[in-house]
Amino acid sequence: MTNARYKKKLDDLLFICSRNLPKVDEQLIRRAFDLGFNAHRHDIRASGEPFFEHPYEVARIVAKEIPLDDVSVASALLHDVVEDTDYQIKDIRAEFGDTIADIVDGATKISDIFRTHEVTQAESYRKMLLSMVRDVRVMLIKFADRLHNMRTLEFLSDEKQKRMAKETLEIYAPFAHRFGLANLKWELEDLSFKYLNHEAYETIARELKARRREREHYIKKFSSPIEKRLRQDGFKFEISGRPKHFYSIYNKMIKRNKSLDGIYDLFAVRVILDTEDSNDCFAVYGTITDIYLPNPDRFKNYISVPKKNGYQSIHTTVVGPDGKMVEVQIRTRGMHEVAERGVAAHWMYKENTKAIDEELSNWVNWVREIFESAEQVPTAQLMESFKLNLYQDEIYLFTPKGELKILPTGATPVDFAYEIHSKIGQHCLAAKVNGRIVPLDSVLKSGDQVEILTSKNQTPNPDWEKFVVTHKAKSHIRRWVREEQRKAMDAGKELWEKKTRKAKLSINEDELTEFLHQRRIENIGMFYLGVRQEKINPDEIIEMILEEKKHPSARGQEDGKIDGLFDKFISTARGATSGIVLDGSHDNFMHNYAKCCNPIPGDEVVGYVTTGEGIKIHRKNCRNITLLLKMESGRFMEVNWPSENGAMFVAAVKICGDDRAGMLNDITQVISTQMNTNIRSVNIDSVDSVFDGTFILYVKDRDHLGKILDRVKRVKGVRAAERLEE
Asked: What predicted TM-score, i.e. pTM, was given to this entire model?
């Protein structure tokens, strides 16, 4: 390599690797460095610097901040090669072997999780999780990749800054938390906070900076007697003020509805002991609480009962000098390594082959649980489950035999039952908590002893899904409900066929589907389900079909013309706005519009989660909604049209009346002049001195449309004026 500057960078990287990694294959890293440098030689970042600066910095993070191994460093140097250059994964495989090629391939596939629509998002999630289960290094490289991108985010447009910051806060930071990477999680959160709420970020930064000297002086005053006692007792230790992170402070201010002055744990101290004996942590706790009065409600023992991500520490809050509350963490050096570096602190090798120990396996078990039914879960539910599982606080529960179970905060006895075994959950009849029978939707607390009572005759209740919080419980309940629904549909189909044979009606499934479609019933499965549940009378349907066969009408030809016009209208109406909003997110999911009610902007709408078609948007007064609510109320979601100030919606109005001279002029004058509304198009037909007209116009809302119709009805010769809906 002739570029002296990059030769120095390579030397610096190799030095960092030699200091932080258990072993280093220098030739491997040199080869990866050379290929990455040459592949990106002509590429420039948004900042104007050479693109290779990015994979180089990612490799430095992997080597220094979450040190793994030389394979990870080489993969980090190559992680953008396949995505951004002419190199293909087969080239990487030929040059570096299967392990590095698979890691680079995994990193490439999950690089843009949230850039496209919901189906692709869910597929990207599946790829990400699959890659994580196969080789956890894929996700750790993605953490480093995202961290460097966030550190250089100022060079992107405001829109991209906010998109990446939101994605980082919702996905990457919680994933880092799940992997036990505390430092990385805090930095990702603070950088996201900086771009999503810059004003609040700057306010907190300014106030903390102004108080820095005061805070440092107080921490020194607080720590001095502790240091003196610990030295007397022969401990080797490090004691320091623990920085409070901006996003954490902001969340506490919002949650507790207090100003910065009201957050009492801004003073935080960490004691790290140079010992391997966890009992020393409890001895130090005794010393500190002998000096300062502890708050018994603020004690947490994560040493005896670690968090799921392996975190161990003692947390306590004591009353320090001047009556100020100080949060103290006590841990060993080894515990601190795990707390800071999480999964990286557990990296192991046996004969040059990656071996993941039991703790590391536990960290990715939750991914496998999600994968048990990922292929069968509808897209919206899949996304919900991922987000639900990422960032939950934990509670510690016990079986009657004393076995520990760790579940998310808010867990219920049904969650506990499924955690023990799926069959226990399926047959859960009742629960005892601390010896007393409790409702199945009771919220459990840390320390509870839970006993599940089962019955072979008991089956899941669909309502359980409304209160369970774990993915495992939700997915098993949904799976059971779907299976029962399928059985009911089969039974309904059998009953329908029996009825048609008795009535001597010959109709195949395609003809039945067409008949139902004409009556705005799109799903033949739901029809069979309605028959089985006696919500649809098959005899009435048979009678309607036989009557239609006897008296076919020309209605279909007329419908074709009307449908074509109406389809064109609703397409125009929906195109005039920016889609549908779910949980404040614009067009971030797969959806389509129900043909039974043809919703358009301005209508009150509701979303129905289908299998394979995303979310179906219905009008709230749709006649099919009542039936669906009775059968599957748990599959409805709140959706809305985007709220755009001053936005005008497109509506269609059908007007009929006497075909007199000047009629069209009078109607358009009322709409455009008196009601100050623009008309987009007019379609008029006249037969035997009677006209039928369809007017497509802009309205503010339904009330505005109602006033227009009232005014049009006053025009001489107008017989009817109503909204065109079907």
From this structure: 0.55
